[in-house]
């Protein structure tokens, strides 16, 4: 007996995983998940939260929230590291080359992450929701990185 399975596309599969990764976030304002993929293989994952060994915002509160800092501004006031940054760092930590890889992310990367993504050699980005940082989109376009808004649902 032959049954046809309704399998998700690779893009949907990886984007769905970013939302699972985001559930590990310790940010009080936005839960973000990221995945770096090459040749249909997951190289690393990342979510936003404080660096290893540092207290998380869910434990001590959010300075940006207390100061009413708008989304996309004054990243330096945040204890956390972005999901994309964590995914890049994890790949480096474990010696995985991400040159020519694809990034899947729940949100479009900010301009700080964009600089890291460009220099890391990532060539394509799938993201679900936008982000209040127009500079990142401009940089991705100038760098020739394929930026695709993708709704996995």
Tell me about this structure.
This protein has 153 residues and is of the alpha/beta class. It has helices at residues 10-22, 57-60, 63-66, 83-93, 111-120, 134-143; strands at 33-38, 41-47, 102-107, 124-129, 146-149. The protein has a five-stranded mixed β-sheet, sandwiched between helices. α5 (111-120) runs parallel beside α6 (134-143). It starts with 9 loop residues before the first helix and ends with a strand.
Can you give me a brief rundown of this structure?
The protein is an alpha/beta fold. It is built from six helices and five strands. It has helices at residues 10-22, 57-60, 63-66, 83-93, 111-120, 134-143, and strands at 33-38, 41-47, 102-107, 124-129, 146-149.
List keywords for this structure.
153 residues; alpha/beta; 5-stranded mixed β-sheet; globular
* SSE run: HEEHHHEHEHE
The order of strands across the largest sheet is 2-1-3-4-5
- Characterize the overall form: globular
The first-to-last residue Cα distance is 30 Å
- Give the fraction of residues assigned to helices: 25-40%
Number of separate helices? 6
Q: What composes the largest sheet?
A: 5 strands, mixed
The unreliable regions are none
User: How much beta, percentage-wise?
Assistant: 15-25%
Overall strand count: 5
Q: Give the helix/strand class.
A: alpha/beta
The whole-angstrom Rg is 16 Å
Question: If you average the pLDDT, what whole number results?
Answer: 91
């Amino acid at each position: 007996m032959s049954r046809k399975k309704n399998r998700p596309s690779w893009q949907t599969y990886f984007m769905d995983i970013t939302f699972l990764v985001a559930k590990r976030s310790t940010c009080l304002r936005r839960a973000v998940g990221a995945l770096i993929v090459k040749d249909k293989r997951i190289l690393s994952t990342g979510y936003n939260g404080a660096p290893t060994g540092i207290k998380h915002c869910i434990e001590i509160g959010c300075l940006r929230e207390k100061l009413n800092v708008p989304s996309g501004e004054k990243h330096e006031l945040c204890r956390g590291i972005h999901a994309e940054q964590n995914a890049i760092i994890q790949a480096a930590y474990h010696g995985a080359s991400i040159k020519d890889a694809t990034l899947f992310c729940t949100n479009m990367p900010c301009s700080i992450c964009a600089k890291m993504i460009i220099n890391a050699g990532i060539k394509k980005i799938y993201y679900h929701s936008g982000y209040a940082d127009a500079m990142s989109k401009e940089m991705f376009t100038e760098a020739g990185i394929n930026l695709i808004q993708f709704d996995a649902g």
